[in-house]
Amino acid sequence: MEPIMQYRIASPADYGQLAHLYWTYASEENDSPEFDENAFTRRFHAFLKACMGVDYICWVAEEAGRIVSVVYIGMLEKMPSLSEERLRIGYVANVFTLPALRNREIAAGLMDTVQDWARTHSFETLFVLPGEKSVPFFERQAFSADNGIMGYSFRKD
């Protein structure tokens, strides 16, 4: 019997696993990181303590007590309108699944949960700046490039 996948919002008790997962993600395509994993973990913990629940929320897919996939959402409150409605914009900052568990629809199920949550928590839109390899994933999740969001990038590479 295969363990049941649970989707939930991360808590401070998860920060160690989240740091290791992000280290795995960040080092996957970076051959020469500036930090070793311990130094990065300290830096990432400080980020999580400062930003989680305020500027960011992290959703996790957990199997048998182990976090196997994550979605980080940066949250931006929109300016007040002339109605009582409060709206937010969400930036999908990172989606990552452990390499050995990819192509099992774990991230898709997690992203479905995130989209349902955002829909019921006053988000007007979710947007992403996808890497070339992740465009098909986001297209399958009903993200499109024609939603009227424009941007200016300071990065010219």
From TrEMBL:
Keyword set, alphabetical order? Transferase
Alphabetized CDD domains for the sequence: NAT_SF
N-acetyltransferase domain mapped to chain residues:
5-157
Name the domain of life this protein comes from.
Bacteria
Keyword Transferase tagged: yes
Q: Does the keyword Transferase belong to this entry?
A: yes
Q: Which GO terms describe its molecular function?
A: acyltransferase activity, transferring groups other than amino-acyl groups
The record's section on Pfam families has: Acetyltransf_1
Q: Please report the name of this protein according to its UniProt entry.
A: Acetyltransferase, GNAT family
